[in-house]
Write a structure and sequence with these properties.
Double-stranded beta-helix, 6-stranded antiparallel β-sheet, mainly beta, 4 helices
Length: 253
């Protein structure tokens, strides 16, 4: 990587290299070889070197599969209803030497690398969690089918389904915690879920008895994750951070 005032280890992610820079306000640099390409969520790019060309395209279906124009339009419509951009940006190195493209998150927090190929090819993630990933990554919207998750899931109701065989990068607020479930059940504030491996059962359940629900301060319902696989959690969801900032602001007269 190029010179920087921050010393950060360079990591390999399949065909490209990357480094995550910073501590609590992280950014991501990816070095692409000639002809290599990655995709990024609209608006996530921070800077790029002259040999990088980019093009916005309609969001890809899971696994980068086809489905034709109709499939693409249906996927774009689902992303629009979920409050997502209908486009993703493709960044390709058209130079004859390595070139760098960098990304940053919209919220203060961490960036985590996930090897989709090593996790069966699929994770489910919160909206806006996906930052960028290898060119074969497919992204669509996974609407929760369960009645409880639909009515009470809040931020966790509509999830991104991310599929592929390469590396992806997720962004989250605060600190990221990775948990490995081995048949256990984990109860979580739905906003604190970043992503979880496909096959883990996701639902929304009542938060204790009536007294706990009304006076506990944890909300009326909690998300439950149960099964076997990896779970990524964030300590400071952007919605909670925005609420705290708003509550501390003086009231206008």
């Amino acid at each position: 990587m190029r010179d920087s005032n921050v010393s950060t280890a360079v990591m390999n992610a399949g065909s490209f290299q990357y480094r995550i820079i910073g501590d609590d306000l992280q950014m991501l640099e990816i070095r692409l070889g000639p002809g290599e390409e990655i995709i990024g969520e609209a608006g996530a790019m921070m800077y790029m070197e002259p040999g990088i060309e980019f093009e916005s395209k309609m969001g890809k279906r899971p696994g980068g599969g086809g489905g034709g124009m109709l499939g693409g339009l249906m996927n774009a419509g689902a992303r629009m209803l979920a409050g997502e951009s209908i486009f993703v940006t493709h960044f390709q190195n058209v130079a004859n030497q390595d070139q760098i493209v960098a990304f940053s998150s919209e919220a203060p927090g961490k960036i985590v690398s996930i090897d989709l190929g090593g996790l069966g090819g699929t994770v489910l993630a919160q909206r806006d969690a996906f930052l960028c990933g290898s060119s074969d990554t497919g992204i669509t919207v996974a609407f929760q089918r369960k009645l409880g998750a639909g009515f009470f899931g809040g931020e966790g109701f509509i999830l991104q389904k991310v599929q592929g065989n390469g590396h992806i990068f997720m962004s989250a607020g605060g600190t990221i915690v990775e948990r490995e479930l081995n048949g256990e059940r984990l109860r979580v504030d739905s906003g604190c879920i970043v992503a979880f491996q496909e096959g883990i059962d996701y639902d929304i359940q009542r938060a204790g008895n009536l007294k706990s629900m009304l006076a506990g301060g944890e909300g009326l319902f909690l998300a439950t994750l149960e099964g076997r696989g990896k779970v990524w959690l964030q300590s400071m969801p952007i919605g909670r951070l925005a609420h705290i900032i708003h509550s501390k602001m003086p009231s206008s007269q």
